[in-house]
């Protein structure tokens, strides 16, 4: 392991298999030489991620760049985790400091010095499967010259002895997400052309969809490959579904950059923001009418708020384990999520009101050269639970 050194590439140990049918024989160097970039907050799961990457069969990456998205004082802790888990990849791993600016900035930092034609991005909480590198080689060999990225297939293990919780179901939605950077390989040329990740996205939310739309708008194709990666559900607390409402601010930025139809083009679920707005409006009007001494219309609107909140809570409770703790959490957070979602969306709308629309004629985010940078400290990365936004 080093902070500067780079390992040497390898020939394709998968032999002469070429899904693209290009007729490349055995012993010919593999043209899909790749770098792996892993942003991390220094969580314990990083060790499992690196150990799985070391254990999988297939062509080794030329380099594994671990971007410690922490202040400089936290770098030694990440380096210690790398030393204890990189195994045979130790001479190919390089740890760099991301400075705590968020996953988009961390991925840009890791990709900046890549000298390989492909960059495979992995999250630090995934575990690649035994044939991952071999299947990645096949995915990249099958990619035509117009292919800008190839997505891996995520698998989220769920409990076998009970129904999954709201948080577990939300994480399982990653199995169907388009272009999730938990396992996404981009052609380096496509990243350079579009300016990389937009660093105004401070969370692990929407920054992958934004980049994918810019790559598509620039004329590249995005495809789904065959390689598989396991994405475990990480432990979380009762109020996580409230914290992830911060992502509504990122949705506001997406609308500014890509227009109101970005949901369809990004293959993203629309969410419940319009319904949250209706429930929130009913609650606000009920309070105003009550303060104005008009109890009957206030009671009617309060009833609408209660009905909307109950419907939202039941949609989250019904498919779950229905334990006392889960039901209590769903009831409490279902009442609090609509105003939180609206507040974060409004804050994002105001913050990004001057953001220019992305133009494919430009060379970076919003048509400018290079990635845009965030103007403040990043929030902690979260995954959105089902029905929460």
Automatic annotation (TrEMBL):
Keywords: Glycosyltransferase, Transferase. Residues 1-26, 358-389 are annotated as: Disordered. Residues 1-14 have a biased composition (Basic residues). It comes from the Bacteria. InterPro entries: Glyco_trans_2-like (IPR001173), Nucleotide-diphossugar_trans (IPR029044). Pathway: Cell wall biogenesis; cell wall polysaccharide biosynthesis. Residues 35-144 form the Glycosyltransferase 2-like domain. It holds the Pfam family Glycos_transf_2. Residues 368-389 have a biased composition (Low complexity). Belongs to the glycosyltransferase 2 family. This is Glycosyltransferase. It comes from Actinacidiphila epipremni.
């Amino acid at each position: 392991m080093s902070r500067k050194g780079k390992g040497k590439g390898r020939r394709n140990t998968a032999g002469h298999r070429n899904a693209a049918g290009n007729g490349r024989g055995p012993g010919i160097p593999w043209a899909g030489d790749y770098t792996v970039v892993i942003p991390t907050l220094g969580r314990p799961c990083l060790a499992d991620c690196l150990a799985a990457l070391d254990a999988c069969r297939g062509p080794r990456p030329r380099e594994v760049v671990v971007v410690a998205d922490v202040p400089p004082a936290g770098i030694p802790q990440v380096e210690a985790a790398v030393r204890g888990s990189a195994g045979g990849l130790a001479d190919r791993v390089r740890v760099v400091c991301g400075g705590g600016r968020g996953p988009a900035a961390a991925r840009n930092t890791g990709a900046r010095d890549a000298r390989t034609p492909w960059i495979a991005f992995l999250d630090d909480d995934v575990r690649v499967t035994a044939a991952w590198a071999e299947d990645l080689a096949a995915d990249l060999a099958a990619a035509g010259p117009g292919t800008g990225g190839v997505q891996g297939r995520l698998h989220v293990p769920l409990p076998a002895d009970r129904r999954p919780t709201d948080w577990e179901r939300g994480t399982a939605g990653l199995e169907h997400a388009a272009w999730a950077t938990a396992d996404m390989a981009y052609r380096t040329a496509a990243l350079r052309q579009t300016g990389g990740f937009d660093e105004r996205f401070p969370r692990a939310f929407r920054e992958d969809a934004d980049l994918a739309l810019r790559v598509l708008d620039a004329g590249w194709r995005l495809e789904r490959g065959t390689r598989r990666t396991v994405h475990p559900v990480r432990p979380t607390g009762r109020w996580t579904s409230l914290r992830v409402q911060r992502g509504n601010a990122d949705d506001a930025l997406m609308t500014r950059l890509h227009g109101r139809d970005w949901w369809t083009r990004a293959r993203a679920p629309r969410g419940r923001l319009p319904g949250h707005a209706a429930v929130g409006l009913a609650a606000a009007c009920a309070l105003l009418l009550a303060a104005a001494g008009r109890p009957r219309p206030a009671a009617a609107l309060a009833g609408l708020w209660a009905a909307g909140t109950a419907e939202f809570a039941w949609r989250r409770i019904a498919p779950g384990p229905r334990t006392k703790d889960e039901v209590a959490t769903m009831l409490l957070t279902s009442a609090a999520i609509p105003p939180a979602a609206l507040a974060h969306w409004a804050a994002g709308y105001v913050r990004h009101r001057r953001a220019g629309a992305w133009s494919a004629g430009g060379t970076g985010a919003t048509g400018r050269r290079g990635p845009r940078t965030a103007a403040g400290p990043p929030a902690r990365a979260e995954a959105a639970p089902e029905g929460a936004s």
